[in-house]
Amino acid sequence: MYAVYRRNGFTLSCAICINTQLLFLRRWRLLGLRLFVAGSKMLLKDAACGYDTDRVAGNAFSKSFGIRPSTMNRFLFPRWVNKFLLVLGFLALGGGAYAGVVFLGATDPKTLNPGYQPVQPVPFSHKIHAGQLKMDCRYCHTSVEKAAHASVPPTSTCINCHSPLEKATGTPALAAVHPDSPKLKALHQSWESGNSVPWARIHRLPDFVYFNHAAHISSGVSCVTCHDRIDKMEVVYQAKELSMTWCVDCHRNPEPHLRPVEFVTKLDWKPEDGTDPAVLGAQLKKDKNINPLANCAVCHR
Amino acid sequence: MTKGSDNRSTYWRSLNELENTPEFEQFMHREFPVAASEFPDGISRRRWLQLMSASLALAGFAGCRYQTEQFAALVGRSDQRLPGIPMMFATSFEWAGRAVHLLAGNVDGRPIKLEGNAQYPLTASVDPSPFNDGKESSFATAGTDAYTQACILQLYDPDRCDQLLSRSAAGKEATESNWDTFERSVRDRLEVIKANAGASLAILVPPTRSPSLRRMLGEIKTLFPQATFGRHSLVSDRHFAAGIKLAAGRYGEALWRFEKAAVICSLDSDIFAQEPAGMVYARQYSLGRDPKTGSMNRMYSIEGQYSMTGASADSRLSIPTHQIGSFAVELEKRIDAKIAAGAATAEAKSEATWDKLDAAARIERTLDVLSSDLVANQGKSAVIVGRHQPAEVQAIVWRINQKLGNVGKTVEILDIQDDQEMLGSVSLKEFADKLASGKVEDLWILGGNPVYGAAEELKLGEKIAAVAHSVYLADYVDETAAFCRNIVPAAHPLECWSDVMGADGGYGIGQPQILPLLGGKSVLELLAMLVQAEDRDPQNYVRSTAGVVAGSKLGDQQWKKLLHDGYLESVAAKPLSVKLDQFQGEVAVKPAAEISQVKDLEIVILPSESVYDGRFANNGWLQELPQSVSKLVWDNAALVSAELAESKRLSQGDIAVVRVNGRSVELPIFVVPGINPTTIVTQMGYGRKSAGRVGNDVGHDVTPLLTAESGTVITGVEIASTTRPYKLATTQDHFSIDQGGLVETSKRAVRLVREGTYEQYKHNDSFAEHMGIHHPPLESLWTPPDVAQGHAWAMTIDLNKCIGCNSCVIACQAENNVPVVGKEQVARGREMHWLRIDRYFQGDPSFKSGVNDPKVVFQPVACVHCEMAPCEQVCPVAATVHTEDGINAMAYNRCVGTRYCANNCPYKVRRFNYFNYNKPYGYYYGWIDYREDANRKLQQLVLNPEVTVRGRGVMEKCTYCIQRVQNGKIAAKADGRELKDGDIKTACQAACPSQAIVFGDRNDASSRVAVLQKDPRAYAMLEELNIKPRTLYLARLRNVHPRLMTQDQVDHATGGHGDHGHGHDEHGHDDKAHGDAHGAAEGEHGAETKPAGDAKPAEEAAH
After folding, report:
1. What is the full DSSP assignment across chain A?
2. d(CA B754, CA B38)
3. Can you give B751-788 as a three-state secondary structure string?
4. In this complex, do B82 and A218 lie within 8 Å of one another by their Cβ atoms?
5. Exposure pattern of B1067-1088 as b/e (b: 16+ CB <10 Å)?
6. How many degrees, rounded to 5, is the angle at CA A300 between CA A298 and CA A301?
7. pLDDT by residue for chain A (301 residues), tens digit each?
8. The complex's ipTM?
């Protein structure tokens, strides 16, 4: 269940959200109102039957519900209605809790964002490449130190190791790691046709947010800070919230997340002598004059 | 009050304001003049959608579930190419005979921004940087003109011709064809053409400066010696060519060196706007506008229109355009006499000041002073005449320059061949006659839309239609395409290989930035098809041409260097050693005294500042660009003086009929003070019928007034109002800072846009500082922020260098994804330009001719980034806040659209998105047509990915190009270095041809901006509000000859009013420094009552 939630976490919380929205749909509201009116009429008729109503003229309320004044002098709910009071109280409390869950829990970035794990055209395993084979992140994500985008590698980078079998010779042109694996079909098709591999994007920020990898890497913020242990992920998912508060928290208190620049891609890095990363971070912050700002224009342009 | 104030300069922006019309009143009393939310009712739904297609944007993701977003990673990527990082490629192209040398910013394979190539030798040779301190490398900007900036939008125009069309017979519908069929028909025709040696072939070419195209046409001429070549351009340069031939005996191109000129005299020449090398000239001019280094040139402008150059001039004289010849002849006589007499200086006499003179006396005085000034500056002066003036007048002016010894010094005649002469091209009239003769069976029109604007009597369209095999290289399916059999889509200049010859005769390469988006072909490719060349690769052809120009075949290394630099080093045309006084003829002229008596009306048809000759008609950015003096958008009009309007009973905005020899056009009237009372000025390029969805039926077509021989200055004009009203949209009263009407404006404008004479500056260089309000020491309600730490971004705008060319406006629009809103929205005051150029008229409206001889001052205004920003104090959601380095930032996603900030902004620089200008509404607010969708996808490619696209209900404004600032900082950080002055250039700064705009870090004491902010001319607009703007202005100086000064200027130049004695010493000011501030001070002390509780200045007591 949790795995399903992890993959479709957002969808699930969305379903809750949609239910709530449906309650407020105009159509439903109208239906509810009608039911209420019809029920009230029945109750009133019921009540009217047990009393002598000839002496008192009907009030505006009963008139408005189409009850003949001559049959009613005052209105009383019958006793059996009292049972519903409990239900009503329960509904009010339960509704409050439900709303609380929906608006505080389900829409929280922690619920909405982490766990997003789209299906990729090629089941590329970071666990094998970055974890077992210990390839550096920058072998593929080449522009991470120079540009805003870390960049998804071009097909040619994959082909360096996974080149397909040439039709003419039956041998691969470059290194031949799994040259005929069906899992690499999308990759080889891309290489042969010249079209992109349709990689699905996992870590996404809104269009009005301008995150820059180079600025963070050059300050010594590791990949692991935002992406978690990619080297342990068989299929990559979003591990952190990547919400505004989450960003701002770090911008206000960067020390625990700083490390020497040479270790940014070493995901399992810990200070050698066992010092507290925050202490080392504070030192780095001072030495390198790292002063992350937290004004709007840092990310919003 | 003293009598001095009667002569005070008075500023106003429009006649509406001057007369305080109800419309103006309404505009003034509401920040947002018309109710905010109504859908544009004056505009048809269709029109609205059409406009929208000019500014569409990235579609947002709707719904609550994550939609899977895909990467389109490249299959192979060069290691220099980084996703999202613009790569700058040097490229060049030509349009309308102008060469532009550029750096194209290419992001992820799509060019989105054009900057001038500062290293191009001609540009680099004139660096109008404020200092000569060897900082050029990082600071050099070349600037471009507004048209070139806007070319990028046209690249993504979905209305461009996007398929090969052909029609089987004249008058039939053109249908889609394919290249094979076309190629086959060309091959078949080639046999015929070869057989008759080209007798059946006629080629119509627009003027070209491309060495490759010239070479290829030359080859075709050799191949088919009988072929007819025609040359066509609506904006003709034939008068210039004929003039230089009269003067020098042969053709050559003029290259001016205004930076070497102390006196520049423009005889009806709009140097900056209409000269092909205008942007270079703007640089040269601005180099001579630096009073600090003592280099102050003096520019005279004698013209009938009110041009951008006239506005920049120190002295302007208004005479009828067709009398420029008379003026030139008279000027020459005086120069002759003065050279002979050897007495050059015109001594100041005690005589009436300029503002007291009538028209005839003004001409006389100008002639006298100008001739003396020119003679006193022999070899250091320049007399330039408008290209639309007759050849004889051009020749006379060349003779004047020769006599003044300017040739070879301030002007060079370069050994450049005329393309018409080279090909033996005939004029359009002869070409039409040739077509009519029936001998032409193959007609190739290489672009230029010759049918639009061709004189009616030529019947060009019909004649083209009669040719059995016609091929038209079409940018759009336009007026010409309607008559051609084969319509070939043309590639945009940024999509093809090309080359240009610079204004100095240098060689610039044009390399494609993107493959043809709509399958267009370049002219070189098309001609290669005509001759069935073996090697059809235009790259090879251009490369071999470059080899010819360089003198030897280019090796790979040299070719790469050429592509990298964009130009060939040490290639330039040689100056001819010719004498320019060979013209001996006479021209019929009027004596000087009679020039002012001319009553004959004339009409001057100029290329539009927006659409040029109509080629940019479908360009929304340019259509919505306020024209520099009239501030009209989305229209042309008959611009007339107030005097003419009064005498002919023409009222602003009414349609008038303009008649010449039985031909007539209808035009709306727009009154521009300062135009000569006999002159009607209008612009060509409007009223297009098949320009595209944006440009169709915008404005009125004035070309029916032209005949094959008429030229664009036509006399014998009648004008009469039809009293039919017409709605013109102008931005001149929008976002006015002062809201108190004329009296208040005249008082305040002196403080907003400060100017003085050079004499005054020499007397007291900090006069501008003292033109502000006298106020007690300012105290703030808020704790002022600490601005001494870190960066402090700041800007200066030198009003002395600004020529009002609008280049910055378009550059800002391109950089910051500013939408186009359409004429109706502009009329409601909802234009979105972050940077506007305020235009003030200055003159004494109480004096009769004051209205008709005003001076013009330009002032670019964008957000000034106040340190204590009033907008931030009223934002209820903190959507506009300050960054630590002093930028007033906007968080669009936080803005809820209360518009309090705009209300509280004293500079009126905030813009509100009344509509989702960047989102298609779809037909009936829902269904989005696939065509609309495709268009949107094409159009959104022009958007800068570094800037958020704003939606409806959001406030926006200048951000000091925060994306450039942030990226500059990040790049420096990634490189591990400190930011250098000049690393970060704003878009407006980079586009400014005269380097009037300087941006940088004020906390870096050595930065240019820091030095300029301490310049004595620097002042803060509205400093009395204590909001501490970061943008400072440098006061404008007019280097007026003492004898041409108005009383007002004389008063100021001599250091103040003798009978006016404030006790300034008590105020702690330097006495001498203060004399000039009186003009402003009087308004303050004399007319206004002080608010109670104000610390009473000591000077009040001294009264």
Report:
1. -HHHHHHHHHHHHHHHHHHHHHHT-HHHHHHHHHHHHHHHHHHHHHHHHTS--SSS---HHHHHTT--GGG-S-----GGGHHHHHHHHHHHHHHHHHHHIIIIIITSHHHHSTT--PPPSS---HIIIIIIS---HHHH-GGGGTSS---PPPHHHHHTTBPPBPTTTSSBSS-BSSTT-GGGHHHHHHHHH-PPP-PBP-S---TT----HHHHHHHTB-HHHHH--GGG-SS----S---HHHHHHHHHS-GGGB--GGGTT-TT---TT---HHHHHHHHHHHTT-----SGGGT--
2. 39
3. HHCCEEEHHHHHHCCCCHHHHCCCCCCCCCCCCCCCCC
4. no
5. eebeeebbbbbbbbbbbbbeee
6. 100
7. 344 444 444 444 444 444 444 444 445 555 666 677 677 766 666 554 444 444 444 455 545 555 555 455 677 888 888 888 889 999 999 999 988 888 887 778 888 888 888 899 999 999 999 999 999 999 999 999 988 989 899 999 999 889 888 777 777 777 778 878 889 999 999 998 989 999 999 998 888 899 999 999 999 999 999 999 999 999 999 999 899 999 999 999 999 999 999 999 999 888 888 888 888 889 999 988 888 988 999 999 8
8. 0.81
Q: Which three-class secondary structure state does DSSP give residue B897? A: coil
Q: What's the rounded Cα separation, in Å, for the pair B834 and B808? A: 10
What is the Cα–Cα distance from B121 to B366, expressed in whole angstroms?
37
Between B58, B884, B947, which is nearest A293 by CB?
B884
Distance from CA of A4 to the nearest CA of B (A): 16
Indicate the residue of B72, B887, B971 with minimum beta-carbon distance to A297.
Answer: B887
Residues of A in contact with B976 (CB under 8 A): 218
Could you tell me where the DSSP H helices lie in B201-357? 211-223, 238-248, 271-274, 278-287, 308-312, 324-341
Strand (E) or helix (H) holding B526: helix B523-530
CB-CB under 8 Å, B83 with A151: yes
Mutate to test the interface with B, among A211, A221, A296, A299 (most CBs of B within 10 A): A296
Judged by CB atoms closer than 8 Å, whether chains meet at B74 and A154 is answered as: yes
**Token couple for B1063:** 């006790």
Using CA atoms, how far apart are residues B497 and B307, in angstroms rounded to an integer?
Answer: 35
Contacts of A149 in chain B (CB under 8 A): 82-84
Residue in the structure block whose two tokens are 């000839």? A54
Cα separation, B1053 vs A43, whole angstroms = 97
Token pair listed for B540: 């090879």
Asked whether B1005 and B1013 are in contact (CB, 8 A), the reply is no
- Choose among B69, B83, B949: nearest Cβ to A143: B83
pLDDT tens-digit map of B781-836: 888 888 888 899 999 999 999 999 999 999 999 999 998 888 888 888 888 999 99
Q: Tokens for B410, please give them.
A: 């301030």
- C-alpha span between B119 and B137 (Å, rounded): 9
A201 vs B58, B71, B76: nearest CB: B71
Buried b (16+ CB within 10 A) or exposed e, B1039-1051: bbbbbbbbbbbbb
Q: Which residues contact B220 (CB under 8 A, 6 or more apart)?
A: B198, B203, B227, B527, B530, B531
Report CB contact under 8 Å: B949, A207.
yes
Nearest chain A residue to B945 by CA: give it: A207
Residue B178 CA to residue B336 CA, distance in Å, equals 66
**Beta pairing partners, B840:** B857
Out of B65, B79, B887, the one facing A11 most closely (by C-beta) is B65
| Min distance A263 CA to chain B CA atoms (Å) | 16
Across the interface, do A143 and B85 touch by the CB < 8 Å criterion? Answer: yes
Q: How far apart, in Å, are the Cα atoms of B863 and each of B702, B887, B889, B909, B1029? A: 38, 10, 10, 6, 9
